[in-house]
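Design a sequence for this backbone.
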């Protein structure tokens, strides 16, 4: 997937470019290629980015540690402001961060990378708690496999514990 030169968007019909996605993304292990599209529209002082994507990933259940397949989907919209980045010398050593500093920005004469954007959206769509089933009971523990033998290094402590009177 090629990067989009932001000034070139102004020459596109409707100031919009649509990029079809149909490949495996580096850094995101999927069983199927990521399928979808990213639509980038130049709105003067910002880019309006809309995208959808889907793929199948293999996850590990947090409870039973079994692998399972999960359909990963995203349908996102984001505004990316166009402004020149400040030089490092313009930043004080300590400064208060305002809400305006918490938005995504790109230089107006730079590039937009649709592959990176769709990768970020899919990573955000990964479930926080990965469960193979909603009622997953976890790892089955069979009592016959439990270790009953006490480590000999703890034998003296076990004798001391046995000699102490029980508290009630």
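Sequence:
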């Amino acid at each position: 997937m090629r990067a989009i030169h932001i000034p070139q968007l102004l020459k596109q019909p409707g100031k919009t470019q649509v990029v079809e996605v149909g490949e495996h993304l580096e850094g995101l292990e999927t069983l199927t290629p990521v399928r979808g599209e990213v639509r980038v529209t130049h709105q003067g002082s910002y880019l309006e980015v809309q995208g959808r994507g889907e793929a199948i990933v293999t996850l590990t259940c947090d409870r039973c540690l079994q692998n399972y397949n999960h359909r990963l989907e995203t349908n996102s919209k984001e505004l990316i402001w166009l402004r020149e980045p400040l030089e490092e010398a313009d930043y004080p050593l300590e400064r208060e961060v305002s809400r305006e500093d918490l938005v995504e920005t790109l230089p107006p004469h730079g590039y937009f990378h649709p592959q990176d954007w769709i990768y970020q959206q899919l990573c955000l769509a990964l479930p926080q708690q990965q469960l193979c089933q909603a009622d997953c009971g976890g790892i089955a523990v069979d009592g016959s496999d439990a270790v009953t033998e006490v480590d000999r290094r703890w034998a003296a402590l076990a004798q001391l514990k046995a000699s102490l009177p029980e508290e009630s």
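The longest strand covers residues 67-82.
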